[in-house]
Each structure stands twice: as C-alpha cells, then as structure tokens.
Specification:
With about 260 residues, this protein is mostly helical. It has helices at about 1-20, 25-45, 50-65, 70-75, 80-100, 105-130, 135-160, 175-195, 200-230, 245-260; strands at about 160-165, 170. The chain has a two-stranded antiparallel sheet with strand order 1-2.
C-alpha cells in the first residue's frame, strides 16, 4: 500500500500540471501513454511492437490520436485519417501473406482493435481538454479515483456478494455500489466548489453513468488479463502495474464524457 501511494503521488505530480497547461506537452503525454498502452496489449498476446506489424499497428494508433486541430496538415496531403487507417489495415493484411500466416488474420484483428481501444479513450481525453474542458477532465479523474477507492474500501468492509467472479473474483456488488456513491459525493463537491457548468441533478445522474461504465472498463481490462493469464498489464507504475491498469476505467469514461458535451 505504501509503494502504491508513493507512486500515485509522484504520478499525479507529473500528470496534473501537464493536463493543466494542455497544448503540445499534453499531445506528447497522450501519445506516450497510448503507445505504452498498445505495447502492453500486444505483449499480452505475445506480439511485439518492435516489428513490421507492430510498427504498422503503432502508426494506426498514432493516426487515430492525431488531434483535430491539426487535421489541416493531413488535408494538405489530400488524405483523411480514415483513408490513412484503411491503408494501414490493408498493409497489415498483406503482411499475413508475406509471413505465410505466421502473423495471422486473428493477429491483425487483435492489433487493430487494441489500437482502437487505446486510441479512442486517449483521443477524447486530449480533445476534451483542448475544447476548454479542464474542469471536466479533473472531474473525470476525481470521480474515478473516488469510484476505485470507494469500491475497494467499502467492498473490503461490507462486501459479501461477488460482482463478476469469472472476471474479477475480488470485486463485490456492495463495493461497486459504494464506488458509485463516492463518485456522486465528488460530483456534488464539484457543483459546490468549481465552475463546472452543469446542474446538480444532471451531474449526479451523469456521474452514476460514468462511474458504472468506468467499472465496466475496469472489468474489460480484467477480462483481457484473465484471458491471457497475466496479473498486470505491465510494471511501469510500481504498486499499480501498467498504464492500462491505471487508465482502464478512464478509457471508457473519456469518450462518454465527450459525448455528453457538458461544456457546450
């Protein structure tokens, strides 16, 4: 627990100032985090990012992450993000032939979906921040930290009924509900003490949805790890595991947060 807390404090001290300033430093941070996330997923399936197919999957991810404010750069070459992604998919499929099926259609599918899974979440993280949504990014971080902490401590104290034992045997229904309640408390505090432009009842309802889907995101990554028989997605964060272990909930929350268009 001590190591976990120390890592969390150091990570927050590095992460939050970059989120606050935004701009190019945030672009670089987003690309870094997403790249590590893709690396962790490919490693689970025993695929390496340091290969032709790994580089193609990485390029696919980087194109997905390309910020909307820079789309004019692609337009100057008369190509869109979709067209480039299609070209990369065709190259990955071609690589199955070149390797005589050592790199299979299943591997292509896994690589593409992994890039989409990681890329969509981090793309909307950056876009939400750049659209003037700093307070909403902070809101998303705090409600998910509250959800995780509430689920852990309340589940440990009161948990009796398993939530989804086939996927994550330690999670309980009581802990899950406790996590949602803690997230709603944080939402109330944001309404009272921040400039978030959402009414109390609306934000409480949205918070319940985000907290539930954040927990689903956690379970999705747990399902990945159970399927591939790994304990953590990586070890870059001592006490926490990998990037996916830390951002799995937020990869579901950030797209939903953006779709709600709370700041418009």
């Amino acid at each position: 627990m001590k190591q976990r807390i120390i890592t969390a404090v150091i990570a927050a001290a590095l992460f939050l100032p970059i989120v606050y300033f935004g701009g190019l430093p945030l672009v670089i941070l987003t690309y870094f985090l997403a790249t590590i996330g893709l690396y962790e997923l490919l490693k689970m399936k025993k695929l390496t990012i340091f290969s032709v197919h790994g580089v193609l999957a990485l390029l696919f991810l980087w194109v997905l992450l390309f910020p909307a404010e820079y789309n004019h750069i692609l337009a100057s070459f008369y190509y869109s993000k979709i067209e480039i992604c299609i070209a990369l998919i065709l190259l990955l499929l071609t690589f199955t032939v070149i390797t005589k099926n050592q790199y299979t259609f299943e591997d292509v599918s896994f690589s593409i979906l992994s890039a989409v899974y990681v890329g969509i979440g981090f793309y909307f993280f950056f876009e939400t921040r750049q659209d003037g949504g700093l307070v909403y990014i902070l809101y998303s971080l705090f409600i998910m930290w509250a959800t995780d902490s509430g689920a852990y401590f309340i589940g440990k104290a009161l948990g009796k009924n398993k939530l989804w034992p086939e996927i994550s045997p330690n999670k309980t229904v009581e802990g899950s509900i406790g996590g949602v309640v803690c997230a709603v408390v944080i939402a109330v505090l944001f309404v009272l003490f921040s400039n978030i432009n959402v009414g109390l009842i609306s934000l409480m309802g949205i918070t319940v949805v985000l907290s539930v889907f954040g927990q689903i995101g956690d379970l999705v990554e747990s399902a990945f790890k159970r399927h591939f028989n790994v304990k953590d997605s990586g070890n870059i964060l001592p006490g926490h595991g990998g990037i996916l272990d830390r951002f799995d909930s937020l990869l579901f929350v950030w797209p939903l947060l953006h779709f709600f268009h709370l700041w418009l």
